[in-house]
Structures are given as structure tokens and as C-alpha cells.
Amino acid sequence: MTFPTAQTIYDAIDHTWPAAEYLTTEKWTFRRGTGGGSRVSAATANGDVSDDDIVEAEAQMMRWSQSGLFMIRDGETDLDQQLERLGYVIKDPVTLYAAPLEELTQQRPPPVSSFVSWPPLASQKEIWADGGIGPERLAIMGRAEGPKTTLLGRAKDTPAGTVYVGISGAQAMIHALEVHVDMRRSGMGRILTTAAAVWAKGQGASYLSLATTDANVAANRLYSSLGMQVVGQYRYRIKR
């Protein structure tokens, strides 16, 4: 497998962090999120669209009781400008990262600092809940197909963080990395990322990828320090 591109990461998001329902038309792919957040609720264009197509997309999302939310991917400058003209504002710019597992697994986590667990333990759910990751996002993990797991990070014999990782083809992708508030700035994010890489390599994957908001400065700094490369971006537009 060649190094992941933005498009392969977009595809991996849908496979490892799936919406509750997909509806694909000539113009759009719609995602029904059932409260699981923007990634599983945004519509994406399947080519050039007209203003009328956007109005129809809004109507479909309203039928699902969702706001009009569009994901703008690399190269979709015309759609971005079109939505801006129609009163849609930017929401949550996101950066995509990837790295070969062969490189990431050179930095192995300390012994007994992380444990593989599927399904997630109660302590992991508590850490996620404290970080705003509730049952709707846990349901996303549950419905993902293919190899997947979670990892519990521990420090001082105490649950310190958690992360979910799924595999799509030769690409592993991490989601919902959350560190307990008392354990932040302790290196737990690095431990969980490298532990996820070790698990994914053991499953036969070749690359690790992820998506993080630009506003999450600490996460972007972490992934850059691990040698992960920026391979693309996306952002959302939502009606003002």
C-alpha cells in the first residue's frame, strides 16, 4: 500500500468511524449521525453541485432532524465558495496525519502503561464521558466493522487515558483519544498513540492515520513530534 492520501483517510473515516446510516445520490453522500458528532453527520458532494442541489441537501438533512452541515475536502474550493455565498460559515478546520507503523513502533510505550480492551471498560467510558464523548460516540465504535479495539492507558496504577483504533485495509485509524484531566501533560497521549500503533502493526496494518481539529494545539504538537506527516485537511460549513 502506498502512503495514505487525504482521500484514503476520508474513506478510512467512514469505515472506522461509521455513521448510523448512509444515503448516496448522484450529487451527495448523506450521513445520519444520531447525535454522534460532525464526522458522522456531514454531507459530502459527489461532484459539482448547484445552489438548488444544496437546498435539496438541506431538506434531506432536515428530514433526519440534522442541521445543514457540509464537509469541505481538499480540492473543493468551488463548493467552499458557493456555501460561503449562501451564508454558510466555517466550522472546525481539521488536519489529517499519517505515518508508517514501522516508524511509529520504534517508539514503544513503557511496560504496563497500556492495555488492549474490547469492549471498553467502565473506567474508559468514564474518561470519555468526562471529555464529552458519550454513548452516541461509543455506539459508533460498536457498529464499526473490521478489526478494532480500544486501549486503556494507566499511570500510577490509575486509569489515565483511552483511545479507540480501527483498521480499514492496510490503514489503521485512531479516534477519540482522551486523557484524564489529572494526567494531561504527562505523556499519556504519546503512550496511547504508540500503543495503538503496536496493536495495529500486529493486526497486519501498515500505516496509522488520524484527524484532529486545528484548535487542538496540544494534539497537533504531539502528532508532529511523533513524526507523523500532514497529508490533507477538511473543514465543515454550517448555516450561520
Automatic annotation (TrEMBL):
Domain N-acetyltransferase: start-end pairs: 94-240
Keyword entries, A-Z: Acyltransferase, Transferase
One Gene Ontology term of the molecular function aspect: acyltransferase activity, transferring groups other than amino-acyl groups
Pfam families attached to this UniProt entry: Acetyltransf_1
InterPro entries recorded: Acyl_CoA_acyltransferase, GNAT_dom, YpeA/RimI_acetyltransf
Name used for this protein in its record: Acetyltransferase (GNAT) family protein
The species this protein was found in: Cognatiyoonia sediminum
